[in-house]
Amino acid sequence: MSNTLLQLYDLSKKYGNLTAVNKLSLTIEKGKVYGLLGPNGSGKSTTLGMVLNVVNSTSGSFQWYEGKLTTHQALKKIGAIIERPNFYPYMSALQNLILICKIKQCSSDCIEEQLKLVNLWDRRNSNFSTFSLGMKQRLAIAAALVNKPDLLILDEPTNGLDPEGIHQIRKLIITIAEQGTTILLASHLLDEVEKVCSDVIVLKNGVKFYEGAVNGLTQTHGYFEIAAENEEQLLNFLKMHSDLGKIKKENQYYHVSLEKNISTTEFSKELQKAGILLTHFSKKQPSLESQFLSLTQTKKHATPEN
Ligand code: ADP
Fold first, then answer.
1. pLDDT at residue 85 above 60?
2. How much distance in Å is there from the Cα of 40 to the middle of ligand 1?
């Protein structure tokens, strides 16, 4: 049995003149936890909507299970939460889930297991209307899991939650992934994707900017923060150096991104040889946030920032 659950081929969606998703190709493999990461409006929800058959694509295609199943058949093996959780307010958590099992035509045998997993078993007889937003979201996750899906799709699952609620949902997603469910999580929060996901697809204006391991996104060689007595001499030296990338002035210091891993000792020796007198020198790593921003702003190197 193949490991490929979903493939997108040049999938696009236009709303009038606006291209919400632009020729997006990607593959979702079993057993991984994918983050679909991008700022608000970058096309994440539209992408999920298309593969879940709630948004019609304009061009391109996608296939589930390598085309062995129709989308209709495949969606029975998928759990998705793409909107705010919607349940009957005056029915209990348990009654709501029993109803969902009937709608999904699956056995209600695993309801207890799912309610325990999302930590709502003790509140199973409380009406949905009495739940906090975090509890509602956890119930939605339990509802998405009742048919034991191969893939769980979540769109911004922590939006609007307080820090405790956010923590609980992230922990829950990690537990579900550890139990073997593949996950596709859309989020505009880099640290969420970094905490939860193994792989990431970065979108900006509907275009894919990066696809790969999460730690690939966050790995750079860092940058030098540097100043010298003779600024012009320093700048000429930096511009000529083959292992250095972008140069940017931040207050009184130059920030120079590194294309290779160069040690401070090695570099200061080179500067000494060139007769450059330094007044400030240190090596830094850009924050994750600034790396993500630089990825979505330009295809070139991370702009070093503190
Ligand atoms: P994200 O989920 O990353 O926030 P969306 O997929 O919701 O992004 O939106 C992508 C772009 O498509 C945005 O510019 C948004 O305004 C636009 N868009 C989304 N849905 C519609 C719609 N039904 N009609 C017109 N424009 C839409």
1. yes
2. 9
